[in-house]
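=== Given protein ===
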Amino acid sequence: MNAPRVLLHTNALDEAMDVVKAAHTDLDVVGCASHTDLSVQIESHRPDVIYGVRFDDGSAFPRDALLAAPGLKWLAVGGSGTDHLGHWDTDRLDVTNTAGIAADMMAQYTLGTLLSFTLDLPRFRELQRAREWDRGAMVESIEDKRVLIVGLGHTGRAVAARCKALGLAVTGVRAQPCATEHVDAVHPTEALLGLIPEADVIVVCVPRLPQTLGLIGPAAFGAMKRSAILIDVSRGGVTDEAALLEALTERRIRGAALDVFATEPLPRDHPLWACNNAIVTPHCSSVSADWSRKSVQHFCDNLARFRSGEPLTNVVDPVRGY
């Protein structure tokens, strides 16, 4: 399509406009930085293509307006997750995501939080505040520890590469097992419970799907070592928060780094805030200063393919969820 009508639905609208207009100078592009105004913009502009980012503006995400947009041929999701869209008619609409652009950042988050536990950084911060010198202090090496990566997509593979570089033994599970670089052994998801008892670190980076909801639940926590560390950068609901909270408060695992939650923002009265063996972050493991620009640039590259009739990259299958 030579000159499709494009609508940008994002809370970083000025930057997105600048990137798209620089890459596609001839296009008719409009923007919308709110959820409530989206239906009006769709009706007036009748876009062929929408680039959309899931953001919080205090109102409900306009899923129905997006999926029912008349004449819409392609919805480009600015992030990796598409669970907020549910199902869509693949005969009428292509949906793509930007899976992979933040994998390196999420892998850095994973290693950073792991090292926070093994180096006991929160305790040293408390000692610093107290101006106390602990002559018997020690730090712990991660070399030769066993990491189990649940999900070997872009993020899981980036985590594996960094873990291998630091001397960890790496095992992975994925829906369709195959030999994977930097992973010593790959198993089907059904083998998860049998692998957990040997893991020192469990990293969760699967998409939110019906089959992954509650995947890290009571049985998984019951199988973990007392010294195990859980790092969850997947989506809210993959880890059973009630089972997690019980494991943390009863000290049945060493700790957890949590970037995703069933309800976001995490309610102020949620007991996870008070767990001193948990690191709680606001779904930011993928959000670096250049994330938004990278996402829009990925869209622009795909838009060039769309205009020339080439296959789009990162097309999502709503049944698989990725």
In short: The chain has two domains: 5-101+288-308, 103-280. Residues 291-308 form the longest helix (18 residues). The two ends are 25 Å apart (CA to CA). Residues 103-280 form a domain with the Rossmann fold fold (CATH 3.40.50.720).
